[in-house]
Amino acid sequence: MAEPLKSQFGAAVVRRIGAMLLSAHAAFPERRFVADGTRGLDALELMDRGRHVAAAMKRALPPDFDEAARILIASLDSPLDRTSGMGMTAFLYLPHTIFVAENGLDHFESSMAAQHALTQRFTAEFSIRAFLDRDPQRTLARLRTWTADPNVHVRRLVSEGTRPRLPWAPRLRAFQRDPTPVLELLELLRDDPEIYVRRSVANNLNDIGKDHPDILLAVCARWARGASPERMALIQHALRWLIKKGDRAALRVLGFEGGEQVAVAGRIHPRRLSVGETCVIELLLENHGPRTQSAVVDLAVHYVKADGRARAKVFKVQSVRLDPGEQAILAKSISFAQRTTRRHHPGRHRIDALLNGRAVPIGHVDVKAPR
Question: Does the predicted model carry a pTM greater than 0.85?
């Protein structure tokens, strides 16, 4: 079993933070900080560990926040030189961002400088939200400036930190009600040269679409006109929630319209299995119409729940383009293994193919209790 993330944020991390702060401030009480920061740490979950160490920082750093922020910035290692593959290493700076969010709200410039530096080593997407709540106009103005920052991590902070529904973070209720200020920032980042930023823009738009699907569709339709392949990939990712729901307007934005003349036949093997096993679903598609047809092909598996009711989960399969009379064979494996995010139960699980959101029943699989 994989080691929990929280176990990688232990006493060694606290000692390293203490050594870094001491190197930046000769009067920093390193031994007291380490003792304070490690006391009771093992009993806490990951985010609570970050808050615990941030509180120890507050007790050890100078009481003047501007001076404390200067020391914090001076203690930092070199900025990240890549956008992936860092694992837990960057979580060293989780307490730093919490310290800024909890203590720097009345010190705007020092806090912005700290977050500008921290997001280049970890991320300030959680801490910046406190400033968007407290002082939205000034914070949005600073983020607008950062859309042109030469550092990719700073530009990504703009799109990721303003996500209305950012995972692990409180929602930005004001932007859920009116996403206009966020959209103005995303306009400036939609053609960012880095996919790391464009992917974040798409995630933000996807968030917005869950509260305002009409706004998401209008933005994506406008952005799709004359769009580059890179921007179209952004749009497709932004529309993924609506696409999984079979939204016809979202499919039209991506150029998938019609598909009614594409016939679908399915084969499921095996049709009987036990919880923990896997089945393979094959789809034979054939265009019976006189014109070329394009379709997004998905599968909807109607999982039987503990109470006997069924709930559909949609799996992406493939996009196809079929000339008149042309066929295509697609296959998808569906696992019935138990997971923390999805528990499987015995029963008859209905399976539909979805072509541009149109459901076509292709059969069922009978699932028994584990062997």
Answer: no
d(CA 71, CA 29): 13
Determine whether domain 262-368 maps to CATH 3.90.1150.10: no
pLDDT tens digit at each of 371 positions of the chain: 456 667 788 999 999 999 999 999 999 999 999 999 999 999 999 999 999 999 999 999 999 999 999 999 999 999 887 665 555 567 899 999 999 999 999 999 999 999 999 999 999 999 999 999 999 999 999 999 999 999 999 999 999 999 999 998 999 999 999 999 999 999 999 999 999 999 999 999 999 999 999 999 999 999 999 999 999 999 999 999 998 888 889 988 998 877 788 999 999 999 999 999 999 999 999 999 999 988 889 999 999 999 999 999 999 898 899 999 999 999 999 999 998 888 999 999 999 999 888 889 999 999 999 87
CATH 2.60.40.10 domain range(s) in the chain: 262-368
